[in-house]
Amino acid sequence: MEKPGLPSGTRDFGPVAMQQRKYVLNTMEKVFQLHGFQCIETPSLENLSTLQGKYGEEGDKLLFKVLNSGEYLKKTDTEDLINKNYSNITPKIADRGLRYDLTVPLARFVVMNRNEIQFPFKRYQMQPVWRADRPQKGRYREFWQCDVDVVGSNSVVSEAELVEIYQEVFKRLDLTVEIRINHRSILDSFLGILGSIENWNSFMVAMDKYDKIGRQGVVSELENRNLNHAIDAWNFICDTSELNSREEIIQSLKNYSDIQGDSLDKGINELELLYGLLDNTENVKFELQLARGLSYYTGAVFEVVVTDTKLPREYSIGSVGGGGRYDNLTSIFGLKDVSGVGVSFGLDRICDIMDVANAYPDFSESEGVLVCCMDDVALPSGAEIARNLRLIDVSVEVYPAAVKLKKQLDYANQKGLSYAVILGSREIESKTAAVKNLKTGEQVSVNWSEIQNFIK
Amino acid sequence: MEKPGLPSGTRDFGPVAMQQRKYVLNTMEKVFQLHGFQCIETPSLENLSTLQGKYGEEGDKLLFKVLNSGEYLKKTDTEDLINKNYSNITPKIADRGLRYDLTVPLARFVVMNRNEIQFPFKRYQMQPVWRADRPQKGRYREFWQCDVDVVGSNSVVSEAELVEIYQEVFKRLDLTVEIRINHRSILDSFLGILGSIENWNSFMVAMDKYDKIGRQGVVSELENRNLNHAIDAWNFICDTSELNSREEIIQSLKNYSDIQGDSLDKGINELELLYGLLDNTENVKFELQLARGLSYYTGAVFEVVVTDTKLPREYSIGSVGGGGRYDNLTSIFGLKDVSGVGVSFGLDRICDIMDVANAYPDFSESEGVLVCCMDDVALPSGAEIARNLRLIDVSVEVYPAAVKLKKQLDYANQKGLSYAVILGSREIESKTAAVKNLKTGEQVSVNWSEIQNFIK
Predict the structure, then answer these.
(1) How many interface pairs between A and B have CB atoms less than 8 angstroms apart?
(2) Of B284, B344, B355, B282, which is closest to residue B315 (Cα–Cα)?
(3) Which of B44, B153, B157 sits opposite A44 (nearest CB)?
(4) Which segments of A173-278 does DSSP mark as H helices, in order?
């Protein structure tokens, strides 16, 4: 007999976990809708030609590929098979893959439906994605992203709206967060110091590790990358980020002569506009070290971390969301000059944190009713009482067998139900039921015609 | 430039389609919850050892298999590769597959969580499944099943509850359906006539084609299968099914001497009990030809077809749901004596039918508000007005750029919004807004402090 299990990095969600996940999903969806975003869904299966080359070399490796049906080897070359020449074999045996994120599918959707879409297109999308990553705390192979994007406008009004959405969602979830913001144009202004695009890219990769390896770790990383000439710039970035206010940070940037120019001005101006549109900037932090791995960002970049004091001090799980502006995303599919901006919420990490922080409301109590029949002949009457209660929107179950009352009440109590409606032969005869309040233990006899009113 | 497309048999769902799908999903979920069912979700990826051998030979062929990561050929034998020996190669290059239905994952879930689950376990599950079938009308490769099951009780109360759920869901969706019922024990009683298990299985496969090939088609099929001795029984089944009432059908079964015995009695008794628990049996049809392909059913079997007159006469898409009782499902994973019964709703076909039958409510009108700024300096005030309106639960967007008013109003009208709140320099000065009712065209000037009340 096989003992069943789950693939590594995947999970089942039982009734309690689902209530929690739905609570978080509904909270987000409510906020998205209050801001006029509309829901779309895209298939889990995408053509690999849509996915490959969009997430960098590392991302390509993490794509789950689906084996073609039937005789999948028929297009392969025997020489390739003998030599295990993967780069020739894989494209011939797998045409499709599993969705890796929701941004590339959005770009594909926009390009394919550009004539029906009304721009600016404000969409949200909440679906699972898959990555063949090594599973660890807060990292799963099947996990949900909840994305909000505005496509077809380059106005910073959208950036402000997305920051507000972050603020509102986490406020409703009762989690304190820090929303980190930076701007690619500001980072671009360091190109002169780095000397070449290659060096600049290398610098960004090193800086992207800051959260994991710290300030000094990035210095070593820069030395290893032959970027000694950029260590001063890195120290400047760190010192500036530690200043107390956005105004001081901006002043410091304006004083650093090596980075002056249009690019810096553009970044600073857009961030200033963005801040000006926000009601509350308390939990918004201008963080110059923020690069975000994805190369398609061209403007503002965001990252959210939970800083809630309800979490244990040593608890660390990484960011729960991020995003940014991308000016060229749809151009990979042939549609130019469509700028977009979006942010993502990582549902699974947020749920993990909600759990540790004890931030979920109490779902254990339900308003439900259990009809308990002491006798098989009572079952049809029990079914009818249940139907009548459902008419007034009460959740009702008929315990499916006339077993001992204790067993039936145990079931009701474990499910957190509020009432038991008990039917024995005496009750059937008198067209009454013993209605027991499961919270107080109180029990009274109620006529069938009165049960609706009594429970309501 | 690559032109993006979707894998065959998969679809995108835009904002309108998603409103429709959510309407159907929410309708179902509401009914499931009113009957005390609880939601679970299982991973899209399952180990192939969990899935294979559960859906028959044909089912195994239709499983989507996921290529292992990294050097997936390293365990394969070169001889096998040269000879394209699929039965040896496939198990070595693919350990996981995509969920094929929700019933086998439920069985796995119950076995893995048997110590935490409270039985009878009433769960619903609404998730996509994948089958590498040939796409055609009403048949997709990625589609949603919505399943309701009661596990751990053998009481026919659960069968009755599931029939009621079918009735209630389709009533709320405003679709007329026929719920077809049969019982495996009644079909089992034909074993004596058939002469062997093999013949009986062959007879069931032939009968299962009745919907597609008709009564005479099944006769030819029986001849081809060397089951000429069963043609009389087949004609009896068809004649009996055409009788007007359940009572007459049962009487006819009781008069057919070749099938008498415990098995027939059990089937008839359970169906009688089931009917006795139902409030309304008008749309429930006892159909002796109903076999349902899946071999794991052991008791009642169900199938639902839409018979609504809102559909064109020639419209045919097959069943929109089905299910039955299974006494041994968890035993494939090592847990014996757990009986279950469940039914499934095919979301995609139901949505297709709702569309053709024009049965959706009108979603085109939204209660939303668009804030239109005529000038960049109005944007912060626009953002603040939007925030205040959201506090009273109104969906509000700020058009992200100060473009021409006509363009902004076009956007609002196409999205079906109710009000436009227009801010020009004059309005900013006087702290007012021009509030335009987009349905009536009426426009009035409203003080900022009054906008909440005005819109409410």
Answers:
(1) 276
(2) B355
(3) B44
(4) 184-188, 191-194, 197-207, 210-224, 231-241, 246-255, 262-277
CA distances for A347 relative to A149, A355, A433, B123, B204, angstroms: 16, 12, 45, 23, 46
Domains A15-356 and A369-455 share a fold: no
Cβ contacts of B43 within 8 Å, gap of 6 or more: A6, A7, A10, A11, A12, A142, B99
C-alpha A25/C-alpha A19 separation (Å) is: 10
Question: Residue A310 gets which letter from DSSP?
Answer: T
Assess whether the previous peptide bond of A120 is cis (omega < 30° from 0). Answer: yes
pLDDT string in tens for chain A (456-residue length)? 568 999 999 999 999 999 999 999 999 999 999 999 999 999 999 999 999 998 888 899 999 999 999 999 999 999 999 999 999 999 999 999 999 999 999 999 999 999 999 999 999 999 999 999 999 888 999 999 999 999 999 999 999 999 999 999 999 999 999 999 999 999 999 999 999 999 999 999 999 999 889 999 999 999 999 999 999 999 999 999 999 899 999 999 999 999 999 999 999 999 999 999 999 999 999 999 998 866 789 999 999 999 999 999 888 888 999 999 999 889 989 999 999 999 999 999 999 999 999 999 988 777 899 999 999 999 999 999 999 999 999 999 999 999 999 999 999 999 999 999 999 999 999 999 999 999 999 999 999 999 999 998
Q: What angle do CA B12, B18, B23 make, to 5 degrees?
A: 145
Q: Please tell me the distance from the alpha carbon of residue B274 to that of residue A131, in angstroms, as a whole number.
A: 47
- To the nearest 5 percent, what fractions of chain A are helix, strand and coil? 45, 20, 35
- Which of B3, B37, B44 best probes binding to A when mutated, by most A CB atoms within 10 angstroms? B44
- Is residue A147 within 8 Å of A125, Cβ to Cβ? yes
CB contact under 8 A, A122 and B397: yes
**ipTM of the complex model:** 0.95
* B contacts of A98 (beta carbons < 8 Å): 44, 66
CATH superfamily of A369-455: Anticodon-binding domain (3.40.50.800)
Q: How does DSSP assign B246-310, residue by residue?
A: HHHHHHHHHH-GGG-SHHHHHHHHHHHHHHHH-S--TTEEE-TT---S-TT--SEEEEEEE--TT
Q: CA of B122, closest CA in chain A: separation in Å? A: 10
Please give the single-letter amino acid code of residue B60. Answer: D
Query: Per-domain residue ranges for chain B?
Result: 15-356, 369-455
Which amino acid belongs to residue A345? F
What's the rounded Cα separation, in Å, for the pair A334 and A329?
A: 10
Cβ burial, residue B69 (10 Å; 0-12/13-18/19+): middle
Phi, psi of B94 (to 5 degrees): -140, 110
- Between CA A18 and CA A358 the distance in angstroms is 16
Superfamily name and number for A15-356: Bira Bifunctional Protein; Domain 2 (3.30.930.10)
Q: Residue A62 corresponds to which amino acid? A: L
Of the candidates B322, B290, B26, B315, which has an alpha carbon nearest to the alpha carbon of residue B149?
A: B322
Nearest chain B residue to A10 by CA distance is B43
C-alpha A2/C-alpha B312 separation (Å) is 49
Q: What letters, b where the CB count within 10 A reaches 16 and e where it falls short, cover A167-186?
A: bbbbeebebebbbbbbbbbb
Q: In whole angstroms, what is the distance from residue A352 CA to residue A136 CA? A: 13
Q: How far is B194 from chain A (nearest CA, A)?
A: 32
Report the residue count for chain B. Answer: 456
Q: Compare CB distances from B120 to A11, A128, A400 and report the shortest one's residue.
A: A400
Phi and psi (nearest 5°) for B176?
-80, 130
Which ranges of B142-245 does DSSP label H, i.e. alpha helix? Answer: 156-172, 184-188, 191-194, 197-207, 210-224, 231-241
Nearest residue, CB atoms, A65 vs list B67, B109, B395 = B67
